[in-house]
Amino acid sequence: MSLRTRPLPPHIVDNLEHLAKNMERKADGSEEKLAKLLETTSYAKHRWLYLSHPDIDKSLSSRPNVQRLDLSQLYYDTPAEPILYVTERFSAQGPAAIHVGETTYQLYQIMPHREPPFWIRMRIMPWWEKLIAILLPSVLFSWWFSLRLTKPIQVLTVAAKEFARGKLSARVRHKSRPQFELAQLSNEFNDMAQRIEDSMTTQKRLLGDVSHELRSPLTRLLLACGLLESGLNEQQTKYLQRIVKEANSLEEMLQNVLTLSRLEGQNQMLEFSVQSLRSVLHDVLADASFEAQSANKTLSVNCPESLEVNCDSILFSSAVENIIRNAIKYANHQIEFTAITQNENLVIMITDDGPGASEEVLQKLCEPFYRTSESRSRDSGGIGLGLAIAHRAVLAHKGELILSQANPHGLTATITVPLNSKYIDKTT
């Protein structure tokens, strides 16, 4: 701590020396009387007097040193006449000698510095303290403001991504004030999502209800066709067989629509059990191999006997069958079926060497009723429900179905489902 000295005006020096002589006279050689003098109102009311003793512990003070000022600095030098001592925290006028018996005290008048205003303290701060004082509040405020601004955006982004992935129940849960612009945007998003969910729910319910109601007249139509088989000539029999064929196709389509509707509405009751993958897919693979041979194509199967899967056998085999039949339909010569375990998951890869599909088409192949104009037509069979049902069936098993380009050409369908039963719900 720095100590500076300055000369005192003559009249202040005279007043300080006069005060010292007056106290010396009244003390009359008694240190006790000198100590009592410092307690009198006339001496200590408006000033702080400090009598330094050669032994600092015996020094006398008219006030307690509550500011914890370092008064030991006054002992560094004893000038011939009173001067002004200036430190960072106080000023002192003195010394003036007071002789009491054989002891000499030095009289000082202590003047603590007042706390300067904030703007003055800022001016006398070092440059690096000024920089910290300015930057730290700015950084903290910027961090708080950005957090307050970006958190609602992040919540809205997460909800929008979930909604885009097909989770129609995704909503923005925010705690912002209603007048906050982002809160208004979140409310608009929730209103939009609710309207879309209501519309999709109504559409799915209508599709399921219509498909269910159409099955009854279709069943009666097939029954009537069966009764008409006898007593018809050859030409009439051909017409009737055509009607039966189309009716059966219509019944199959209605069954697929109902299955898809139940899967999307999570109303399909599933019965899970741990079974050998070979046994679950035995009939599917056998029929697929025969169908491939009939089309002069080859189906190669790599499925270890030890592989097991926790699944609803009917729904799971139906999903795999839809994918394999789709691969056989569009393959040129070869279809490969491979099943492995990977990271506690069962992975099934079905690859064909057909023309494949563009990335844009791959994103839509699992959508209901989607049919590519360049590779599918009514004559090729199907109405665009096979892969959609397979996709929903895999989701019901807490897995995923990914369609990707095969190397060098063709299409690969990858089914991934968890092996551990704890990931499987008994119903969906």
Automatic annotation (TrEMBL):
Q: Name one GO molecular function term.
A: ATP binding
Top-level taxon in the UniProt lineage: Bacteria
Q: Where is the Histidine kinase domain?
A: 209-421
- Transferase listed as a keyword: yes
CC annotations in GO: plasma membrane
Quote the SUPFAM superfamilies the UniProt record gives.
Answer: ATPase domain of HSP90 chaperone/DNA topoisomerase II/histidine kinase, HAMP domain-like, Homodimeric domain of signal transducing histidine kinase
Query: Could you tell me which InterPro entries the record lists for this protein?
Result: HAMP_dom (IPR003660), HATPase_C_sf (IPR036890), HATPase_dom (IPR003594), His_kinase_dom (IPR005467), HisK_dim/P_dom (IPR003661), HisK_dim/P_sf (IPR036097), HssS/ArlS-like (IPR050398), Sig_transdc_His_kin-like_C (IPR004358)
Q: Which reaction does it catalyse?
A: ATP + protein L-histidine = ADP + protein N-phospho-L-histidine
Q: Which SMART domains match?
A: HAMP, HATPase_c, HisKA
Protein's UniProt keywords contain Zinc-finger: no
Q: Where would you find this protein in the cell?
A: Cell membrane
> What's the chief localization of this chain?
membrane
Q: Which Pfam families match?
A: HAMP, HATPase_c, HisKA
Q: Which residues form a coiled coil?
A: 13-40
Q: Would you tell me the protein name for this molecule? A: histidine kinase
